[in-house]
Design brief:
alpha+beta, about 10% helix
């Protein structure tokens, strides 16, 4: 497994404690990883559940091939 993509993650990551974050959950999976989250940041944080969202993860050698990380500002 080198690349994982998930849709409809349904999480407002601003409200998730570090111990329960995707970074903590995947820390032991592989030596190297890059993680990019996509979720609604235009509305105030109200609860951990938030409709929609995406999550992309790249592991091992593929993680070092990631050239740019960012977000869609639309």
């Amino acid at each position: 497994m080198d690349i994982v993509g998930l849709a409809e993650v349904n999480t407002d990551w601003r409200l998730v404690e570090n111990n329960y974050s995707v970074w903590a959950a995947t820390a032991a999976w592989k030596e190297s990883r890059r993680i990019q989250l996509g979720f609604n940041t235009t509305t105030p944080s109200a609860e951990k559940y938030q409709v929609g969202g995406t999550l992309s993860m790249a592991f091992d050698e593929v993680a070092f091939r990631v050239r740019k990380r960012g977000e869609d500002t639309r």
